[in-house]
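BUG: 3D viewer hangs when loading the predicted structure for this chain

Environment: internal workstation, default settings.
Expected: structure renders.
Actual: progress bar stalls at 90%.

Input used:
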Amino acid sequence: MECFFNLTLPDGFIADAVLAHRFDAVPELLSGLGLGKSPVLVVVGGAGGMTVDDSRRLKPLFVEVLAPLAQSLDAIVLDGGTDAGVMKWMGDARAEIGGTFPLVGVAAVGTVVLPGRANAYAHAALPACRHTHFVFVPGDRWGDESPWLAHIAGLLSAGFGSVTVVINGGETTWWDAFYSIRGRRPTLVVAGSGRTADQLAAAFNGEESDPRAAALVASGLLEAVSVDRDRAVIDDKIRRLLTDSRLNVAQGFVTGRLS
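Structure tokens produced before the viewer hung:
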């Protein structure tokens, strides 16, 4: 049964949260969280596998581009909702710029440590600090949240632009990119950020890469931009996608397989 609750985060911030069980209930749940239609920026990528050097090179992108863009466009930002890597950096960046945009974590309930809830998963993580909302979905493994994340992004961005930004990432990021493209969402890969993002960027540039990347590139929805490009170039690419409602994806849950 779906239920709403207040979640006290590790930094003391109190977020609005809901435990979801059914796809067909998601529109009502989002309304209950006070989330309306808006441009949607989905941020996916590296979490626990990130290095100190990754943080030094990549975190400025969140403070200088992603958070200010979301703030200026009244966008909703969605991520995987655990306190590591790109999700932690997104929360930190929102706080650093004094952002007021909704920052929504979408996580499989079995992968997150929640008060009063037993968790048998040895690698369960803390919920992401400085997030305003959480949607906890069924599942007990990383990646179980990926189709829900794409579904929620499609519902919230109806009539507006949306984009998924891929930064670094491991196995779960392949699924995030797959469901983003399966849902017809433009997907921007930050080349030079490492791991999955670099494999996708290599395929986009016609270079040898992981075989899984070929179908994603063939969709025509994937584009790559170098992390070393001028910040204004990256800003412009993401802004163009977020402000073009013609690129809006259809609402609804998308299914399929990543081969």
